[in-house]
Amino acid sequence: MACFLVPTAEAIVATIVTKSIKTKEKKPEALKIDTGNGNFEIEEKIPFSHKLKWLTNMLWGGAVLLAFEHVWHGEVTPWFPFLTAASNPSDTATMLHEMSTVGVSMAILVTAVWGVMLIVSSAIEKRALKAPGAQPAAN
Amino acid sequence: MTLLTTVFAAIICTIIWYKNAPKNEMKIGILCWMYWGASIMWFVDALFEYAELKAEYFTPAPADMLNDFYLGLSVVALGLIIWLAILLIKDPKGVVKAALFQKKK
Q1: How many Å lie between the alpha carbon of B18 and the closest alpha carbon of chain A?
Q2: Statement: residue A33 has pLDDT above 70
């Protein structure tokens, strides 16, 4: 009915947080990697704001496509009150129940998937730091 | 069917993204995030529907299946339109800029 509103709300908050972190972020950690024959490559770790953008992209993308599905099913209209379920109290109660169950679960699962991605990317970064020939680059 | 269509779109986009990485001229990543985000959300929707319908969930009426597939294709098309708009606005290859401006002789 309006489950997409919960991920949309999270997407708005995540976007604001991403922008605020981006302005405060320091220069990311750099790595000097020995590519052989005395050559070196400098690689930078991606900043946290970039990783946060993965979450906002998933939330915005999913919410927009889900909103389209709701338009398709006639649950969202371009005129007031925009949600057909908001026009009578019994439907509004059902809508709020759906938002608190399905909508919240959607937001939690997307965030959980992003959390797993953070853990995996952190493990990959640690492995790269430990690799032979890799050393912190002087900034 | 909508979930399945979106998951396949997400998988195809991810394969294309991986094949072209680290180059990101076509911004395929946008499509990946969009389709994966929608797939996760529809997966949750499917779980709740399954909890309600049980085994009946896997035997939808052909008309419902067709309508859901039609919706899935429309969702994929909308995703492609959004991606195309972002691609043309960001114009990473400078193609739009080159088409709009002429070099002075």
Answers
A1: 16
A2: no
Q: Which domain holds residue B46?
A: 2-100
Cα atoms in the 13 Å half-sphere on the side-chain side of B90: 13
Q: How many domains does chain A have?
A: 1
Q: Inter-chain contact A101–B82, Cβ cutoff 8 Å?
A: no
CB atoms closer than 10 angstroms to residue B68? 17
- Cβ(A5)–Cβ(A36) below 8 Å: no
Domain that holds residue A112: 5-136
pLDDT tens, residue by residue, A68-116: 999 999 898 888 888 888 888 888 998 999 999 999 999 999 999 999 9
Among A54, A55, A58, A124, which would you mutate to test the B interface (most chain B Cβ atoms within 10 Å of its Cβ)?
A58
| B72 assigned to some structural domain | yes
Q: In this prediction, what percent of chain A has a pLDDT beyond 70? A: 88
pTM metric for this prediction: 0.87
Q: Secondary structure of chain B in the HEC alphabet? A: CHHHHHHHHHHHHHHHHHHHCCCCCCCHHHHHHHHHHHHHHHHHHHHHHHHHHHHHHHCCCHHHHHHHHHHHHHHHHHHHHHHHHHHHHHCCCCHHHHHHCCCCC
Does B105 map to a domain?
no
Q: ipTM, 2 decimals?
A: 0.89
